[in-house]
């Protein structure tokens, strides 16, 4: 007895006719053509109930395959933030509350001003953005580096780090009136951030390789985190959920990841090239970070959750400051035009515009005659990018539609200016990281 030959898995079962041909001597069964779908033209025997079932299955298959799988839903999951942190209202876009139409009620009557700290003249210039003119000037402490909006949006702090001396301080500026208050002595406040829950100010003591957590109003010391392997710790940004922050180590060519819940250093990451990281900013997804490196002339791309470098995008000479647009579609990148800490005037400074969706530079705005764009922010209406001209003693106002730039003369060595008011519910610090 011959063994039965195994049936081919794709061969039709007996009685199912897929063509008009039949075996010689056999009667041709009654058939009907399939008249729709991808199986149109195939004839099936209509005398057998199984054929009808097969027909139904064949017609249903494309619809089943085309239907989106519920298990493969790509919508971002809700973000579980740390206790006390305001919720992320739109998962996948941490900047949803910083659009032009979302000025918080508490800031709507604040004077529209640009506050410019001048490092070598120890003062702050105040610009009226409507007239593009300096309307006020006042002395602060020694070596003001940045003007930092507080978590509650009511105070702008000038961080006077005194550069190597012992008389550092923080000068409070009333956000409503633009008038300064009495300076508070604070050790080495190069920059300042705020915890996502608003309970602490984080004074970046750059020379001490330390983060000092202080009362956000009185600046009384709470505790510190030492960062011994982060030389030149200075700029930072936070994950979407507020569980960690990544700080740049300017003079170490690396980054430090800080656990904001356990208050400890998670680890360090050495960048692949360049070696002088400056500003850092997280993308709308809350986990992709861009790191400006002034020696690499571009931005490194990181996966913050995994704390690994994933890419690099060239931008311009001396890449320095990073600022998202009001619609969170692009990142404005200030290229300071020099690889030196104290560069020459009229360098090849520019602004690059990076598209968040593609990760590519889509525009570059050179400064006619040269310049040194450094730190700043975007106006509340999103129409103007304000940047300090670090080596040229000016402030630049870029039209964000055309890239055209105006210049305003200010004090000696302007640095981390801020624009006020800005949209958002709370500030994480620096020159205005609002969420």
Relevant terms:
30 strands; disordered N terminus; mainly beta; Methylamine Dehydrogenase, Chain H; 4% helix; four-stranded antiparallel β-sheet; single chain; 435 residues
How would the blueprint of this fold be written?
Elements: E1 31-33, E2 43-45, H1 49-66, E3 113-118, E4 123-128, E5 133-139, E6 144-149, E7 155-160, E8 169-174, E9 184-185, E10 191-194, E11 201-205, E12 210-214, E13 221-226, E14 233-238, E15 244-249, E16 254-259, E17 264-270, E18 277-282, E19 288-293, E20 298-303, E21 308-314, E22 319-324, E23 330-335, E24 350-355, E25 360-366, E26 373-378, E27 384-389, E28 394-399, E29 405-409, E30 418-420
Antiparallel strand pairs: 1-2, 3-4, 3-30, 4-5, 6-7, 7-8, 8-9, 10-11, 11-12, 12-13, 14-15, 15-16, 16-17, 18-19, 19-20, 20-21, 22-23, 23-24, 24-25, 26-27, 27-28, 28-29
